[in-house]
């Protein structure tokens, strides 16, 4: 079981990264590894820990897979000018599938709708520290591959026939 702890960490990192960007959406923001997984002690030759580099790797992987965009890396400390992709925003605001625990029926419809969102379910799983639920939610999110948006067509000055 211990050999899969890195997947638990990856799931937590992905959830925290996406939720941080969701909280500032649509405003681009910096995302720092230290804010997500705690302070890091450089080793005797000045290298970051495996845990720190794994969290940074999760940020870069999410960008490569189309869940977020960013301007540049901040050395090995984080990324700047980061924002959720359209696809990630839509996934986070949609009702969670699977839904770990439906909200009470007595709540107003607007509150129920918010609590059904994947963002809220991820937040709740992180708050409760429930790793199996978190892994299930992150896996569901990542199984919905974003459509890579093609760059806009180059303007040629010619009108279409």
Q: What would the keywords be for this entry?
A:
single chain, 161 residues, disordered C terminus, DUF2513 domain-containing protein, alpha+beta, four-stranded antiparallel β-sheet
SSE topology sketch:
Blueprint: H1 5-24, E1 29-32, H2 33-37, H3 50-64, E2 68-69, E3 72-74, E4 78-84, H4 86-93, H5 109-116, H6 118-128, H7 131-143
Antiparallel strand pairs: 1-4, 2-4, 3-4
Protein name: DUF2513 domain-containing protein
Written overview of the protein:
This is DUF2513 domain-containing protein. With 161 residues, this protein is an alpha+beta fold. It has one domain (2-143). The protein contains seven helices and four strands. It has helices at residues 5-24, 33-37, 50-64, 86-93, 109-116, 118-128, 131-143, and strands at residues 29-32, 68-69, 72-74, 78-84. Strands 1, 2, 3 and 4 form a four-stranded antiparallel sheet that branches. Helix 1 packs across helix 7.
C-alpha geometry: globular
Overall pLDDT score? 81
Strand content: 5-15%
Largest sheet: 4 strands, antiparallel
Domain count: the total is: 1
| Spatial gap, N to C terminus | 62 Å
Number of helices: 7
Structural class: alpha+beta
Q: Which segments are poorly predicted (pLDDT under 50) over 5 or more consecutive residues?
A: 149-161
Element-level helix/strand string:
HEHHEEEHHHH
How many strands appear in the DSSP assignment? 4
> How much is the radius of gyration in Å?
18 Å
The proportion of residues forming helix, as a percent range, comes to 40-55%
Organism: Alloalcanivorax profundimaris
Protein name: DUF2513 domain-containing protein
